[in-house]
Q: What sequence folds into this?
């Protein structure tokens, strides 16, 4: 599929100012979009980031007003705290959810435990269609491993949802952030990019993505994820501190990608 470069000067509201939210805000602002960033602590807590990037700090309600795209980058369970704010959001607004359900952090959600895909649950809670994207990449890779279009080994990010035009818009935004966006089908299949599947945090290329997604076994995903997190934790305190804090030293290598790829039988990834 040819890459598009037509999207400029969109109004993008990002809710959540952790590493995912701030990295997306930085990249999209630099690409010419008008980005408004909100968090639970209020705009005053984001002033240093505002001065550095030119992003506008706003309240959650303000991030939703007049946005062409709203991105949710908060911990999964916190979507319950903002669901009422979506009552004023037009149905035509594209809502992207980048989140992953982690029961140990978010609490057990019965509908998901019974098989409802994460994004389908979010769409039900906020009563608005959603696009699933950016959930399969770690914060370090999102920040540091974007590459120009056409670069060998460029990481591919799946985009799932029902609306073809909305997906194409988000695919283009993915491309603008330095990754190959691709249409991964409807939300019903988005479980194939949830934690513990071969597509999750393995930094797939476009050539690798179809077979990796096809090899996902839904019933094994949570056990896979729990096992892999134990292996990541065994990498040592300094490594874990970098992942948690986002303070990556210049020589940092994200070994979790290698661990996840090896576990799922994927070949070692070239880091050119």
A:
């Amino acid at each position: 599929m040819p890459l598009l470069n037509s999207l400029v000067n969109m109004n993008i509201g990002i809710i959540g100012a952790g590493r995912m939210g701030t990295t997306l805000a930085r990249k999209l602002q630099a690409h010419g979009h008008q980005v408004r960033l909100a968090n639970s602590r209020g705009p005053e807590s984001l002033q240093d980031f505002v001065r550095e990037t030119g992003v506008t700090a706003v309240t959650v309600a303000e991030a939703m007003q007049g946005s062409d795209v709203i991105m949710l980058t908060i911990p999964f369970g916190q979507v319950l705290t903002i669901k009422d704010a979506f009552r004023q959001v037009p149905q035509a607004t594209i809502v992207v959810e980048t989140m992953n359900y982690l029961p140990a952090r978010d609490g057990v959600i019965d509908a998901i435990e019974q098989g409802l895909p994460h994004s389908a649950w979010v769409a039900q809670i906020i009563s608005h269609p959603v696009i699933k994207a950016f959930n399969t990449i770690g914060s370090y890779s999102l920040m540091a491993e974007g590459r120009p279009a056409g670069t060998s080994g460029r990481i591919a990010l799946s985009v799932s949802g029902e609306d073809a035009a909305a997906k194409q818009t988000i695919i283009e935004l993915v491309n603008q952030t330095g990754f190959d966006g691709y249409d991964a089908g409807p939300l019903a299949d988005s479980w194939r990019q949830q934690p513990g599947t071969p597509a999750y945090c393995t930094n797939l290329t476009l050539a690798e993505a179809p077979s990796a997604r096809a090899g996902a076994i839904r019933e094994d995903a949570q056990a896979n994820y729990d096992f892999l997190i134990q292996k990541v934790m065994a990498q040592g305190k300094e490594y874990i501190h970098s992942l948690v804090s986002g303070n990556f030293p210049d020589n940092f290598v994200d070994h979790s990608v290698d661990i996840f790829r090896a576990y799922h039988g994927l070949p070692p990834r070239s880091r050119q």
